[in-house]
Task: inverse folding
């Protein structure tokens, strides 16, 4: 989930919208670590049916529909791991913006920080970001943008094209540099 400008444009399903058929949001496993969000132990959940088109996609299996229903898994994962984590990070956006928003809200109800890794080039290109405005602070705390380009490296590389933003009281702040500070 590190990304590009030729991202497919998608019809956005507003919370009351019903223009596009809803699909379930699927995930492919999960892991816990401290690499995805600076200074936080994070439960990271890769989402299936990625609609992005990163130049050097590192996880092509996430572009298929293989996966299990996140709505069924997430409550149990939160209950099991909440004592050990501070944040839940969704890797990719899947193909159901409304279901993603529901998942973010469930995490916030559990008083966990929330994060999303997107392959979109800009925050404004992310459907769930558009739905959240202007109340994004309630549902989403961290957003990663930029497609994955092998030659530019990951977030902890000084040459990276990707950016991590944190939603603060003064708006979305670029904290990409924190990845390099954290790992010195
Ligand atoms: S966001 Fe990019 S790297 Fe991740 S699965 Fe989608 S196309 Fe691949």
Result:
């Amino acid at each position: 989930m590190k990304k590009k400008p030729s991202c497919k444009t998608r019809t956005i399903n507003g919370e009351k919208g019903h223009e596009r058929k809803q699909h379930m949001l699927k995930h492919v496993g999960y892991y816990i670590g401290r690499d995805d969000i600076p200074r936080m132990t994070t439960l990271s959940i890769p989402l299936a049916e990625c609609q992005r088109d990163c130049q050097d996609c590192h996880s092509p299996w996430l572009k298929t529909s293989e996966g299990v229903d996140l709505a069924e898994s997430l409550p149990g994962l939160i209950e099991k791991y909440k004592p050990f984590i501070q944040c839940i990070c969704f890797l990719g956006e899947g193909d159901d913006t409304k279901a993603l928003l529901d998942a973010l809200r469930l995490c916030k109800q559990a008083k966990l920080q929330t994060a999303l890794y997107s392959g979109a080039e800009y925050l404004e290109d992310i459907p769930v970001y558009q739905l959240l405005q202007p109340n994004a602070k309630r549902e989403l705390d961290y957003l990663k943008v930029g497609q994955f380009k092998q030659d530019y490296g990951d977030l902890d590389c000084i040459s990276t094209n990707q950016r991590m933003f944190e939603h603060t009281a003064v708006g979305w702040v670029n904290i990409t540099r924190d990845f390099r500070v954290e790992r010195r």
About this structure: The longest strand covers residues 163-168. Residues 97-109 form the longest helix (13 residues). The pocket of iron/sulfur cluster is lined by residues 1-3, 50, 52-54, 57-59, 62-63, 92, 119, 147-148 (CB under 6 Å).
